[in-house]
Amino acid sequence: MKRLNFDSSSMLLLLIILIVVAGSFGIFYFSKTDPLEEILSDERVLNILLNLEQDHKVIGSYVILYYPPTRRASVFDVPIETGLIIKSLNRVDRIDVLYKGSDSPQYTKEIENLLGLRIPFTVTINLEQLEKMIDLVEGISLFIPEPVEQYNPKLPMLLPSGFVKLDGSKAVAYATYTLEKDAPETESAILRKQKVITALLARLNEKLTLLKDPQVQTLFASLISTKMNAESTLRIFQELTNLDVQRLGLQRVGGTVKQVSGKTLIFPFYDGVLIKEIVKQTITGLVRQGEGEFPDRVFTVEVLNGTPAIGMARNTAELLKGFGYDVLSYGNADRNDYEKTQIINRSKYPEVAQALGSVLKCKNIIHETNADVSNAAQDLSYTADFTLIIGKDFNGRYVTN
């Protein structure tokens, strides 16, 4: 039998191979970084999808954009009725048909495509968990514009108007009650869910020290369904407790309502191009640190149609709401033969007027210092920061000349 002969060169070659393999494994292992830690250390915007669930079905999806260095956050309410072409099903349908529970990658992917951004973190909270979470932070406070008198035996509810503090069960009931079974979701129902979500974020901010208690942390993490580990989940919500509640913005993805195969679908304006632009501008606002003197408040706009086109003021009002402006009113101007679109600025912030102009590509900005503006409209009180008078050079989205 022949003896195997390993000379020194063979041993050296084997040793080199082992070192290379071990080194490659080490590089692979240690290069795997926590995506959350990477985002926070790089000071990037933290994108989180919060799904609200009832009976294993999604009833609300909210994309939270939070920038820790400025403590600014914005929330986008994505309608579950959003209509799109679903390639996997080869048909046009509502986006919520893709929802399959807390782990729904296709659903998340379509929301990413809609908003034009990556959402690395998804959390799901069902109504039972939401109720317990609100009780954990000792209730939430919100404003109820009108008294609620619900005498349904299954869900009786009496709530006064004004600022009230609600425990978990009352908050969930307020967010989800409907007056008629199977009735399409009304604007008031949408606003009620939004109020509860924002009130919860505000309460987490107030209960910052509470979430540092280890026992509370364990209980809090158990009330959230996610693929993330408990440590990352808690870290995200601890970051959110630092957000500036006074500057928290919330807007709903707007669109055109249509009936398709017996279903109500909302198709995003301009084939989804508009909402992507709104998201980009929102992120720009979140990360802005001391650039210019933009005050941290919502500016008001009055929209007047100075053309014969029907519905131009209403549609433009919806457009501006999407960009975060508070539209006080819309209607017809004093005449319908304005050739050029104009913005009348009554605020003390010309740079904000320029920002509004850039949204509409309108350079015709008139800066007024008193409320007596000639020929702007018919006997209207000028309480808005800006009045937009639509001219014939406006195509529904931009000024063309």
From TrEMBL:
Keywords tagged on the record: Membrane, Transmembrane, Transmembrane helix
Transmembrane segments: 12-31
Parts forming coiled coils: none
Residues of the LytR/CpsA/Psr regulator C-terminal domain: 300-394
Pfam family, one: LytR_C
Organism per entry: Gracilinema caldarium
InterPro entries, per database record: LytR/CpsA/Psr_C (IPR027381), LytR/CpsA/Psr_CW_biosynth (IPR050922), LytR_CpsA_psr (IPR004474)
Family label: Belongs to the LytR/CpsA/Psr (LCP) family.
Designated name of the protein: LytR family transcriptional regulator
Boundaries of every Cell envelope-related transcriptional attenuator domain copy: 91-204
PANTHER family found in the cross-reference section: POLYISOPRENYL-TEICHOIC ACID--PEPTIDOGLYCAN TEICHOIC ACID TRANSFERASE TAGU
